[in-house]
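Hey, quick one: can you model this chain's 3D structure?
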Amino acid sequence: METMKRVQIWYRKNLPTEAERLMFQNADVVILGYPFRHLGWAGELKKAGHRVIPYISFYKAPTVRELDESPDWDTGSPARSECLVNPFWQNVAADRHPEFLARDEAGRPRRPFNNDGYAAGWNRTLQTVDGYRNACLDGVRALLSAGFDGCFLDNVHIQEGAEHEKGWRKGEFPPETEAAFTRLVLEAADIVHANRPTNLFVVNGTRNKAILDRVDAYCMESFFFSWGWDMTFFTRADCRDNLARFQRDAREVNAQPIGISYLGYTGRALREDAYSALALFWILDMAFCDGNTVLDRTFLTRFAARNRFQGAQEGALCFEAEDRQAAWTSDFYRLDLKKPVTTTEMKDDILVKHYEGGFCAFNPTPTLKKLSFSWTHGDAHELATGNRILVYDGKGHIWLAPFSGRIVVASV
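Sure thing. Here's the predicted structure for all 412 residues.
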């Protein structure tokens, strides 16, 4: 599979505005939370060369009659109108199959993330039940029959007994449940790939090597930038060690990593965060996704306000609505550096990777760093600040602030 550079997510019920559509112009893959509400637009995206995959989960299922018509994705799951027409959710719905739901000792359905405040009508499922497994696989087949290019499977890490202070307890899922879940994911991936070689099966968050060797890509949410921390977070973490460990782990599996950075919460300029994340991801051979936060942080802020159980999102609640249609965003989404011409290298403590159209650099240290570089493409232009770089006798240099990235291209 050719390496993906950009992935975009659209979890909103309304179609994107004309200004918002620029997010998708260079996206290799578009993930839709409301695929059957947006069937017409999905067809347009496919005709334009994008692969379109719908959101699914093997962790939770709706009881459709109990669902609200929630706005957008504020609840962390699709609203009732989508579940009424989406064949995947119809297949796994607990309305006709209450045996699909996991239950506590009193017989009550277990809530997602052990959170009683999660959206009404959504509950956790039993992957050990053959009927549920078959319903999931039939649902995947139905999505492929509808013309979609694969699936995006959320909530994979939940099944691995991950520790979490707000309710995910280590050992919560017995070995037989984890084995059944892994088997279900692998079977679904095989169905997707057998349907069409170019199809994609993408999972969200897992370290399961058996899964990562069979799927095409895996998302890492809040990779480097998140809604839950500002720049003080980076002073508490050894960024260089973390990135080195990530690179080592990524080389051991077949799937490509997709980084989802939620931008605009560090206290720095949004433009600097955006280009820093893009530079880092392309240096690491990750596909880039910003979760729509470059154009509008308020969508994520509303989700954070309703779902505080799902992490330390208090930082996201500090921000109000503001105009996101800045002039630089169009160039940001259009940017394509073409093919890489070098591998990633460390130069003077700075990560650097060169492409046909320029180079990316990232400073993973807590100190200001200077990067000197050779340049034969005429005038150079640095995109995070919009500044022209003076190049003399084929040499130039840039300064990189702590934990920030830069992308340098030829001036036009």
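One thing worth noting: The longest strand covers residues 51-57.
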